[in-house]
Specification:
It contains six helices and seven strands; from the N terminus they run H-E-H-H-H-E-E-E-H-E-H-E-E. The chain is of the alpha+beta class. It has a single domain, classed as Aminopeptidase, CATH 3.40.630.30. The chain has a seven-stranded mixed beta sheet. A hairpin with a 2-residue loop joins strand 2 (about 65-70) and strand 3 (about 70-80). The longest helix is centred in the N-terminal third of the chain and has 15 residues, at about 20-35. About 35% of the residues are buried.
């Protein structure tokens, strides 16, 4: 299937499985390398690869989705009931503590789209599925840490900015949404 044909086929959403890990790592690398390069310097993009990596805990917890068109991964992302804010398996900020749905927001995590398949609603589909799953487990809010590339989608989906920060030189926007 050619990239142009991909645009005509509706993505299918499913939970990620351990067997997807290598393809997910490649999708994350390609998405970060290509899409962030439109907004960040080459040095910032290179630095983002330090923490924009796969978090296999999300797959183990069955909270990470894959959007596929045929056998091709079009996007990925999910949510977490754990306290880790963002970052992959090697991130130094991992916190595997379970969140309390009565007093803490769930986390939206690790949203990436294939650069050839942007503007098809893939991110929105994954985001809405993540919010619904978090809501079904009793969460009334979701928190995320957006890149400058993802910020417009999250704003369009009702997220509001809480703060801005840098991870090294990479800008991150902390955002929240009520889902109750």
């Amino acid at each position: 299937m050619k990239a142009g044909q991909d645009r005509l086929t509706r993505p299918r959403l499913r939970l990620a499985a351990p067997k997807d890990a290598d393809q997910l790592r490649e999708l994350i690398r390609l998405s970060t390398q290509t899409l962030l390069a439109r907004m960040l310097s080459a040095q910032q993009v290179a630095e983002s690869h330090r923490f924009m990596t796969l978090d296999t805990q999300l797959i183990e917890d069955r909270t990470y989705f894959v959007a596929a068109i045929g056998n091709r991964l079009a996007g990925c992302g999910g949510w977490s009931r754990r306290a880790t804010d963002y970052g992959g398996d090697t991130a130094d900020r991992r916190d595997l503590r379970l969140l309390d749905p009565a007093s803490e927001p769930a986390r939206v995590r690790a949203m990436y789209t294939h650069p050839d398949l942007t503007r098809l609603g893939i991110g929105r589909m994954i985001l809405e599925s993540s919010e619904a799953a978090a809501r079904s487990e009793g969460f009334s809010q979701v928190l995320l840490f957006a890149t400058v590339g993802g910020e417009p989608l999250y704003r369009a989906c009702g997220y509001r900015e809480l703060s801005r920060q840098l991870d090294g030189s990479v800008p991150i926007v902390r955002m929240i949404k009520d889902i109750a």
